[in-house]
Amino acid sequence: MDSSWQVILDALPLLLEGTVVTLKIVVISLIFAMVIGLVSGLMSTSLNRLLRLVASLYVDIIRGTPLLVQVYFIYFGLPVFLDMRIPAMTAGIIAVSLNAGAYISEIFRAGIESIGKGQHEAARSLGLSRFKTMWLVILPQATRRMIPTFVNQSIITIKDTSLLSAIGIAELTQTGEIIISSNFRAFEIWGVVGIFYLIIIVLLSRASRFIERRYAIR
C-alpha cells in the first residue's frame, strides 16, 4: 500500500487544479455579487417605496432558502422552464453570485445607514444632488467601515463553493471526491482539501487585517 505522503503527492496536481477552479468561481461570483449587492443596497435605502420592496423581496427570498436549493433550481429547474441548457459552471456562478449578493446588499444597507444624517444634510446644503451625495460622500465612508464584513462574506462564499460539487463542477471538493473514488484514501485527501481551504481563508483574513490597519478602519 502506498504511503500517505505518496498518496498526497500523487493527488496534489489534481487538487491544485480544483483549487484554481474554486478561486475562479469565487472571484467571478464576488465581482457579480458586489454589483448586485450595491444596486440592491441602494434600492433598499431609496426613498422610492417600490424599489425598497423589490430589494427586500430579493434579500428575503435568497436568505430564506438554502444555497443548495438555489443551485438545483438554476441548474435543473430553470432549463426546463426556459427550454434551454445552462452549463454547470454558469449555473454555479449565477447561484453563488445571487446568494452572496443578497448578503452583500445588507452589508451595503447597514454601511450606508451607519453614516450620520448630518453628512447627508451637509452635502445637500453644499448643493450636491442625492446621487452625488451618495457616491462622493456617503459610499466612500461607508465602504471603509464595510471592508471587514466584506471579507467575512468572502470567506463564507469560499466555503459555499463546495456545494457546487453537487452539480458536477470540478472545484476543490468535487476533485477530492473524484480522487477518493479511485484510491479510497479519504483520510489523506480530505485532510489536504481542508488544509487548502484553510490556507486560502487564513491568507484572506490576514489581508483583511492589513487593510484595516493600513486605513485605520473604525
Automatic annotation (TrEMBL):
Residues 19-208 form the ABC transmembrane type-1 domain. It comes from the Bacteria. InterPro entries: AA_ABC_transptr_permease_3TM, ArtM/GltK/GlnP/TcyL/YhdX-like, MetI-like, MetI-like_sf. Pfam families: BPD_transp_1 (PF00528). GO terms for biological process: amino acid transport. The chain crosses the membrane at residues 20-43, 50-75, 189-208. Keywords: Amino-acid transport, Cell membrane, Membrane, Transmembrane, Transmembrane helix, Transport. GO terms for molecular function: transmembrane transporter activity. Coiled coil: none annotated. Its main location: membrane. It is a multi-pass membrane protein. GO terms for cellular component: ATP-binding cassette (ABC) transporter complex. It is found in: Cell membrane. Belongs to the binding-protein-dependent transport system permease family. This is Amino acid ABC transporter permease. It comes from Paenibacillus amylolyticus.
